[in-house]
Write a structure and sequence with these properties.
It is a single chain. The chain has about 625 residues and is an alpha+beta fold. It has five domains: about 80 residues, GIY-YIG endonuclease (3-Layer(aba) Sandwich), CATH 3.40.1440.10; about 140 residues, no CATH class; about 110 residues, Nucleotidyltransferase, domain 5 (2-Layer Sandwich); about 150 residues, 2-Layer Sandwich (Nucleotidyltransferase, domain 5), CATH 3.30.420; about 50 residues, DNA polymerase, domain 1 (Orthogonal Bundle), CATH 1.10.150.20. The chain is about 45% helix and about 20% strand. The chain is built from 20 helices and 18 strands. Strands 12, 13, 14, 15, 16, 17 and 18 form a seven-stranded mixed beta sheet that branches. The chain has a five-stranded mixed beta sheet with strand order 9-8-7-10-11. The longest helix has about 40 residues. It is globular. It starts with 12 loop residues before the first strand and ends in a 10-residue tail after the last helix. GO terms for molecular function: DNA binding; excinuclease ABC activity.
Length: about 625
């Protein structure tokens, strides 16, 4: 590709490599556009393999000038998100991790689990590396600090407290069992605990325990004693790795020619609370480029930003990234290339985790590759099924039918390729026809995804297989994509002891199904694929079903349209909560008059008298 790099100015901006079709291959930013672009056309030996391939495939090079390098950083991030270029580093796991939220502006706040941090004045703690970790933390907090667990932003008054109060897991604020002052004191204790100030918290609890004992309030003293013991037991399990008691993210990187692994350690108040790994397969890049891209993408959308981000080497955009993160957080953030000290020990630990996870991934890939080669021989597919998709339908008597497609890549779930469809053409139970609609839409709407598949698996028996086989024949897809189905059916001819369910694999053109009992690893992989598609289909069905039930209940109320319905749900959370609110509470919502509030109570069966609590 011959490009005139002299036309590029010595200014900050963003540049885009494009191919002959105008597809964006790569987006980059630069403090000096001309210097950066010239670096791509050095002698072959001085550039990376990825750069040489990129330049060879590009036919056009465009640029956009920005006022500052920070503007270039933000524009680059936006363009990468929009175009998802093949030669940029893209994080496949882009979900937000759960965190805990406490809104101190609420007179009776509760602990909420959220996945998006906002600058709304509330306190956020986390993130936690998994849903399991946040559930365990919440379970511990509910045991030590029995704040209200009922849903809804505001406390809904009740005549009698809920079951959690009877179990000692709630102080019964809804029934007036605790004053706002005492409740806020416990909220302050929760905040101290989550901030890691456990020494201050223990001292306060010890003082209150002694005061209660002196006042002969022995039940109260025992309450504080139990909380002290719980905190002490929890602290014994924690491993303090830093005496600075700061919030840090430690990014370790391990790289080989066939891939890169990133490991992020979450250090909160000097304690490692978890880690997250990212497997970056291709395209490859230099460590500086990968670290820069990771920081840009990882912290871009509402994730928790710590005091420090420790990295193994300096990066060019270090200053501008730090400025950008500080603005997002509203407080100074330091990106720290570490060379020595206890920070270096943390970084060594992160890099060790990255290396071990990389080795583990490659071993698993080699094992799965051998298993998939065996599957090709057993099922006689034209190529090794590295990428397999499974289709499943979920419905009850044809209602709210949902079709789900899950994809396994080298034997592992590729959740970015999952798809779900609301079945539109059928209202009565007809799984083969519903599956045909879903598969046809998949072929029509996702040509790139279907082109990447090596095997299509159906959750069903001969009926589903024959229907999809005819469809693929009509669409001319049979030669492109092999097809099988897996069904759990009862085997009645194996004697009384042998009766049960057996997995049968149906293959087009074969009269009898394959029984893979002699190939348990292959069967287990197909079962995992089928079970995952079943789980994904059911979860989507339940979501639609719950939404429609909720919508229909509110839509039945005269005078409640979409805007008022949304306001009611935002305020009270659910129909169940609406059934327990007073008419006066309803009238506080903008647009809810006395007449509409009366209708809401009438339709939802609210038995509370007006103004009751």
């Amino acid at each position: 590709m011959a490009l005139k790099t002299t036309v590029f100015p010595h200014l900050p901006g963003v540049y885009l490599f494009k191919d002959t079709d105008g597809t964006v291959l790569y987006v980059g930013k630069a403090r000096d556009l001309r210097k950066r672009v010239v670096s791509y056309f050095r002698q072959a030996g001085s550039t990376s393999a990825k750069t040489r391939v990129l330049v060879s495939k590009a036919s056009d090079l465009e640029y956009v000038i920005t006022s500052t390098e920070k503007e270039a950083l933000l524009l680059e991030s936006s363009l990468i998100k929009k175009h998802r270029p093949r030669y940029n580093v893209i994080l496949r796991d882009d979900k937000n991790y759960p965190a805990l939220r406490i809104d101190l502006r609420n007179p009776f706040p509760r602990i909420e689990v959220v996945r998006r941090l906002q600058r709304d004045g509330a306190l956020y703690f986390g993130p936690y590396p998994s849903s399991y970790a946040v559930r365990e933390t919440l379970k511990l907090l509910n045991r030590m600090f029995p704040l209200r667990q009922c849903k809804g932003k505001h406390l809904v008054p009740r005549e009698r407290p809920c079951l959690n109060h009877a179990m000692g897991r709630c102080l019964g604020a809804c029934a007036g069992k605790i004053s706002q002052e005492d409740y806020r004191r416990m909220v302050d204790e929760v905040v101290l605990f989550l901030q890691g100030k456990t020494d201050v918290l223990q001292q306060k609890l010890r003082e209150r325990m002694e005061q209660a004992a002196e006042a002969l309030q022995f039940e109260q003293a025992a309450f504080y004693r139990d909380r002290l013991q719980s905190i002490h037991s929890m602290l014994e399990k924690q491993n303090v790795v830093s005496d600075r008691f700061m919030n840090q993210d430690v990014i370790g990187i391990y790289q080989e020619t066939d891939g890169t692994e990133l490991a992020v350690l979450f250090v909160r108040q000097g304690v490692i609370v978890g880690q997250k790994n990212f497997d970056i397969k291709e395209p490859q890049g230099e460590p500086e480029e990968i670290l820069t891209a990771f920081i840009q993408q990882y912290y871009a959308e509402g994730r928790y930003i710590p005091d420090e981000i420790l990295i193994p080497a300096s990066i060019e955009a270090e200053e501008v990234l730090g400025e950008w993160l500080s603005e997002l957080r509203g407080k100074r953030v330091r990106i720290w290339p570490v060379k020595r000290g206890d920070r270096r020990q943390l970084l060594d630990l992160a890099e060790k985790n990255a290396r071990e996870r990389f080795i583990s991934h490659r071993r698993m890939q080699q094992r799965n590759a051998g298993l998939l080669e065996s599957m090709q021989r057993v099922l006689k597919t034209p190529r090794i099924p590295f990428r397999m998709a499974c289709v499943d339908i979920s419905n009850i008597q044809g209602r709210h039918a949902v079709g789900a497609i899950v994809v396994f890549d080298h034997g592992q779930p590729d959740k970015s390729s999952y798809r779900s469809y609301r079945v539109e053409g059928k209202n009565e139970p007809d799984d083969p026809a519903m599956m045909a609609e879903v598969v046809e839409r998949l072929f029509r709407e996702e040509p790139d995804l279907t082109a990447s598949l090596d095997l299509l698996v159906l959750d069903g028996g001969k009926g589903q297989l024959n229907r999809i086989h005819r469809l693929m024949q009509d669409l001319g897809m049979l030669e492109q994509l092999p097809l099988i189905s897996i069904a759990k059916e009862r085997e009645a001819d194996r004697g009384e002891k042998g009766r049960g369910f057996y997995e049968k694999i149906y293959i087009p053109g074969r009269k009898n199904p394959r029984i893979l009992s002699s190939f348990p690893e292959i069967l287990h992989l197909l079962q995992r694929l089928r079970d995952e598609s079943h789980r994904f289909a059911i979860s989507n069905y339940q979501q639609i079903h719950r939404h429609e039930l909720l919508t229909s209940a509110l839509d039945a109320i005269p005078g409640v349209g979409s805007k008022r319905r949304q306001l009611l749900l935002q305020q009270f959370g659910s129909v169940e909560n609406l059934q327990n609110v007073t008419r006066e509470d309803l009238k506080k919502i903008p647009g809810i008059s006395e007449a509409i509030a009366e209708k809401i109570q009438e339709v939802l069966g609210n038995q509370l008298p007006d103004g009751a609590s």
